[in-house]
Amino acid sequence: MTKPAMTAQDAAAVRAITPGITLPLPIGHAPMSVFDIDVGTSAGGCPWLRPDRATLGFAYIAVYGTNACRAAVEAVARPLLCYVGTSTGAVFATPKDGDSLMELRRLTGLTWEQLARVFNVSRRTLHFWAAGKPQKSANEEKLQAILATMRQADFGDAQQNRTALRSLGSDGKSPLDLLTEGRYAEAAAALGTRPTIRSRPPRVSPEVSAQRRPTLSPSVLLDARQENLHRDPGKVLGIRRIKPRQG
Amino acid sequence: MSVIPDPQHARRLDAVLQSWQQGDAVLGETVFLHLADLRNPLTPEAAAEDAEDEAREPTELAAITVQVHGIVAVSQTCDIVRACAERPYLEVAPLVEVSEADLPAIKAGRYARYAGLPGLEGQRLVVDLDRTMTVEKSVLLGLKVVRGVRNDAEARAFAEALARKRSRFAFPDDLRPVLDRFRRRMIEKHSKHSPEGDALRALHEIRLAASPSWDADAVSLFVWFIREPGDDKHAWPTLLDTWLKLITPAGRYVGVDGLVTTLDDMTARDYVTSDRLDLDHLSTASA
Questions:
Q1: What is the reported pTM?
Q2: Closest of A89, A83, A54, A96 to residue A70, by C-alpha
Q3: Domain closes at, from A191, A217, A241
Q4: Yes or no, beta carbons of A234 and B32 under 8 Å apart
Q5: B239 lies in a domain?
Q6: How confident is the model at residue B47, as a pLDDT?
Q7: Which among B38, B43, B110 has CB closest to A233?
Q8: One domain, residues A80 and A103
Q9: Domain limits for position A182
Q10: Distances from the Cα of A217 to the Cαs of A206, A212, B101, B180, in angstroms?
């Protein structure tokens, strides 16, 4: 599917956004919906979200309003969106499936093998999803539903989440089994709901982030050489025997 | 009994070294020492005529002093500026001259043995990281220092070259044939103006993990291709498939899988349990 058309201003805002903020998407929100946020008309200063049109693969939200509303917009938008702009006219993009899958892996601490069983696909298929290959809509919906369940149940620790997922209930089923079978409400009830306790460290500037990238390109490292390139052994100035002390 | 070090000298030396940093160089004819067994010389220096005379003596260990084009401080800056009474030593490496033709490859990081210093550009001098010498800090007093790295980015790159020399993971020898087609493809395509070449240049890093461990009888490989967040202009799923097919499981290596991802999406565990793919080889061997 094609991306929605973006204005030049939107495109500029997207480029200016620091990527990598992976944020939760609540149950019930289609992950690929496009919303218009009109800050100025929202009641009580809260942004008003209106699903507009569905796309597959990419979505963005245009924000209209003043800079003063930025914090309120972000407060609402951050839980929904992957990339968040910071000024009037900023563009917000929803998480892609690859991002969601990686977030689910981080949250649950499940291995690729275990996750593959949940979706009844091969590990390799999951890796392609993570790399951006489109999924069938049924898998996409399942991913978002499981992710939303896990966000609400998050202990703040992948190991605890994994333990909870694998704990057997009275019926002999674990929440992981229930999620695998698509019984999300039952899984959510078994796992419980917790306030969000994960916090993110302050982001470093784009300049620092760029400086921290490895300076050597992968292909250089794969073609690294061993030869001796300098031919001058160095003029010998002296050779002094070292006599160990006797006794 | 006199106090060592002399407090006045120590204060003066400490004050001078406050302005030194890792990568600083002393240019000009400088001495450099290493130990050799004169009965079994491995270098032209140890096999020199003088050495032959010395080797007739009953002891075989000798300190070989050679003249080099300069020395470079490779100790960390914090150790250089620390009080000489507490930290009297400094590690230095020699500067060697290379051909103009070899300089670009050294600057690109193709040789783990050599490190370029941007502050010495135009002099065909690079740091030979195979050799280091310990000196007392007083040796540097009065010498004219040349700044080898001039900003944070250059300092970081030099520090990375030092770290790489000592800490790059030694992948097992039997991995080489498994990766050979993949390695050749990466090298061949990297400079090409093609979708694959563009994608390769967009990768920050390739890391490799072995499950359950590198020394197991049956090893599954996992390749991490690390890209920039938000980079969806390349056909990553197709490229991933292409690249993984070039890695041919053989011998102990029973399977290969991989992922194109970002640092944001790797867990800290994923990162620390994998190693940066850094394979040095003799170019003649791969021709």
A1: 0.73
A2: A89
A3: A191
A4: yes
A5: yes
A6: 85
A7: B43
A8: no
A9: 97-191
A10: 19, 13, 20, 18
Per DSSP, A18 falls in state: P
User: Do B236 and B170 form a contact (C-beta atoms < 8 A)?
Assistant: no
Residues 141-200 of B with CB under 8 A from A: 152-153, 156-157, 160, 164, 183, 186-187, 190, 200
Query: Where is mean pLDDT largest: A33-37, A237-241, B88-92?
Result: B88-92
Residue B5: is the preceding peptide bond cis (ω within 30°)?
yes
A241 neighbourhood in chain B, CB within 8 Å: 38, 54, 57, 59, 61-62
- Chain B residue with minimum CA distance to A57: B232
Nearest CB among B190, B257, B265 relative to A219 is that of B190
Burial class (CB in 10 A: 0-12, 13-18, 19+), A192: exposed
Q: DSSP characters for A188-247? A: HHHH---------PPPPPHHHHHHTS-SS-HHHHHTEE---------EEEEEEE-PPPP-
pLDDT at B48: 78
A106 & A184 share domain: yes
Low-confidence winner among A11-25, A93-107, A223-237 (lowest mean pLDDT): A11-25
Provide the pLDDT for residue B107: 92
Cβ–Cβ < 8 Å for B221, B208: yes
> Which tokens in the block code for residue B23?
């990568």
With H, G, I as helix, E, B as strand and everything else as coil, classify residue B42: coil
CA distance B221 to A127: 14
User: Are A151 and A159 in contact, with CB atoms under 8 Å apart?
Assistant: no
Cα nearest neighbour of B102 on chain A: A229
pLDDT given for residue B9 in this prediction = 95
Same domain, A164 and A118: yes
Give the per-residue pLDDT at A97: 58
Q: Nearest chain A Cα to B43, which residue?
A: A233
Residue B253 has pLDDT above 70, yes or no: yes
Query: How would residue A245 be classed by pLDDT, with cut points 50, 70 and 90?
Result: low
pLDDT in tens, B127-180: 999 999 999 999 999 899 999 999 998 999 999 999 999 999 999 999 999 999
The boundaries of the domain holding residue B20 are 7-167
| Backbone angles phi and psi of A49, in degrees to 5 | -100, 130
Q: Does the distance separating the beta carbons of B282 and A227 come in below 8 Å? A: yes
Regarding whether B197 and B135 lie in a shared domain, the answer is no
Q: Name every chain A residue with its beta carbon within 8 A of the beta carbon of B62.
A: 239-242
Mean confidence (pLDDT) of chain B: 90
CA distance B156 to B107: 14
